[in-house]
């Protein structure tokens, strides 16, 4: 019996810089628990990311494709895999002070896409945010590794290649997504996602109404 196919919850935040490439990034977290490294496909290209993998505990197959608002540099991006999720730091290709207005190219609501408030800071306050050097030191580079690249069975030599995974369905046609959520007791479902120029406020301040990005 085949496992159910669901879209995982995706959290995101960002930083921007016109002078320091390492601070001009997208933070992306795929909430895919208990997916073995040798049983997943992650294809990162300059304009999109595709992921499939099967959870051994939830008995579901995760499937998601994200087409980015602008281009990223796969070779300068990093990844960190845990039992609960996959965290990526995607290097924006264009050095720019301004934030991306949204993560995805298409301005359409995606119920699974949410703002990562643990990593988010307002655009005009990002210089005050200290770099998480300890976390970054745990991450593996995405490009140029080849073979297992220190990250299980994923062939990173294929990342950024012209060919995509192919055969992935449109997000709108992916079955019932509710059963594949990895919230596990937190309140992420109540959090709005970024869209347009609205941004979350800092802790202790009231948050404006923010619509989820689609």
Fold and architecture overview:
- The chain has 214 residues and is mostly beta strands.
- The chain has one domain (4-170, 181-190): Sandwich (Immunoglobulin-like).
- The protein has one helix and ten strands; from the N terminus they run βββββββββαβ.
- It has one helix at residues 133-137, and strands at residues 4-6, 9-14, 25-31, 40-45, 48-54, 60-67, 72-81, 86-92, 113-115, 140-141.
- It has a six-stranded mixed sheet with strand order 9-2-3-8-7-10, with no helix packed on it. The chain has a four-stranded mixed sheet with strand order 1-6-5-4, with no helix packed on it.
- The longest helix has 5 residues, at 133-137.
- The radius of gyration is 17 Å and the shape is globular.
- It starts with a strand and ends in a 73-residue tail after the last strand.
- The relative contact order is 0.24.
Mean pLDDT: 73
CATH architecture: Sandwich
What is the number of independent domains? 1
| Radius of gyration, taken over Cα atoms and rounded to an integer in Å | 17 Å
| Structural category | mainly beta
**The CATH topology:** Immunoglobulin-like
Apparent shape: globular
Poorly predicted tracts of residues: 144-193
The sequence of SSEs as H and E is EEEEEEEEEHE
With strands numbered from the N-terminus, the spatial order across the biggest sheet is 9-2-3-8-7-10
Q: What does the largest sheet look like?
A: 6 strands, mixed
How much of the residues is beta strand, in percent? 25-35%
The number of E-state strands comes to 10
Give the count of helical stretches.
Answer: 1
* Termini separation: 32 Å
CATH class: Mainly Beta
State the helicity in percent bands: under 10%
């Amino acid at each position: 019996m085949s496992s159910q196919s669901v879209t995982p919850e995706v959290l995101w935040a960002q930083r921007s810089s016109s002078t320091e490439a390492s601070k001009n990034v997208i933070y992306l977290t795929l909430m895919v628990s208990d997916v073995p490294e040798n049983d997943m496909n992650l294809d990162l290209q300059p304009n999109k990311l595709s992921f499939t993998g099967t959870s051994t505990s939830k008995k579901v197959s995760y499937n998601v494709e994200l087409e980015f608002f602008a281009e990223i540099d796969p070779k300068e991006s990093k990844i960190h895999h845990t039992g609960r999720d996959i965290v990526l730091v995607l290097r924006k290709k264009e050095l720019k002070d301004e934030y991306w207005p949204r993560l995805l190219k298409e301005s359409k609501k995606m119920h699974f896409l949410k703002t990562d408030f643990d990593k988010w800071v307002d655009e005009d306050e990002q210089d005050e945010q200290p770099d998480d050097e300890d976390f970054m030191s745990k991450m593996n580079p995405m490009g140029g590794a080849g073979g297992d690249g220190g990250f299980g069975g994923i062939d990173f030599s294929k990342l950024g290649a012209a060919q995509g995974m192919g055969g992935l369905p449109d997000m709108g046609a992916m079955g019932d997504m509710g059963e594949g959520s990895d919230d596990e007791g937190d309140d992420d479902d109540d959090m709005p996602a970024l869209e347009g120029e609205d941004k979350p406020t800092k802790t202790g301040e009231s948050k404006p109404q923010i619509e989820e990005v689609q």
